[in-house]
Amino acid sequence: AGFALAALEVVQILDSTNSELMRRIQQGTPPQSGHVLVAEMQQAGRGRRGRQWQSPFGANLYYSYYWRLDDGMQAAMGVSIAVGLAVYDALKQLYGLQVQLKWPNDIYLNGRKLAGILVELDGLVEGPCHLVIGIGLNVAMPEPSALQIDQPWCDLQGAVGKVDKNQLVAVLSGCLSERLAQYRQSGLTQMSAQWNRLNAFAGTLVTLSTGQRSWSGSCEGIDNQGALLLRQDGEVKAFYGGELSLRAT
Ligand code: ATP
Known about the structure:
The chain is about 25% helix and about 35% strand. The chain folds into 2 domains: about 5-195, Bira Bifunctional Protein, Domain 2 (BirA Bifunctional Protein, domain 2, 2-Layer Sandwich), CATH 3.30.930.10; about 205-249, SH3 type barrels, CATH 2.30.30.100. It is of the alpha+beta class. The radius of gyration is 17 Å and the shape is globular. Adenosine-5'-triphosphate binds near residues 48, 116 and 153. This is Bifunctional ligase/repressor BirA. Keywords: ATP-binding, Biotin, DNA-binding, Ligase, Nucleotide-binding, Repressor, Transcription, Transcription regulation. Belongs to the biotin--protein ligase family.
């Protein structure tokens, strides 16, 4: 029970597909809900906290999806969880691939980063909220750019062979629309259990840090709000918020 895509827009070069949609929102001219913007390369691809997303020209996917949520920012909290599941769905459906998810927003294959998700918001705590859902997915990473990535990574072509990018965009957009519709309807009530089965760090010792502070514990998955659950000394604590970074201990 998804909703149809409003439009698919393909551009050759942008600073970042997320930045472009955020600008349109800030200028008071957001697209329609379900609008997809894809670029062939990004000159300033972004991760969280000002980190770079390597975005060379070629076959990789640099994708943003605009979604308007009328229930305000509070309701937007768990969106990256739903988006991670949508990426999982698409790769399962197309290639039978079984990826793992890392809280709050990364996609891994055999311990290597395949894709990143960057959800950005513009809105008020109450009232309508504009969401820009960015997905950077490595399809075929050119060698020189690969050298710039400072953690284990992989690409789709290396895992499944030749990829039809048009088909990938179409199926991903369908899966995303479905997961967002499910999210709007029932939040993470069903999705959190599903996500927990795909948790790359399930039951392992992890450290969560903000830069200033850090917490270690056994990773128990997420709750229905999308908060990360860490078990420390027999007690389970929930951690919210986008600025936290998770590492294996
Ligand atoms: P973490 O820091 O734990 O990876 P994060 O969600 O904070 O998670 P992001 O901000 O999503 O990370 O992504 C930025 C990081 O991802 C970069 O610092 C780099 O290590 C890595 N990276 C950058 N470009 C790519 C790419 N094309 N493919 C895989 N990894 C990349």
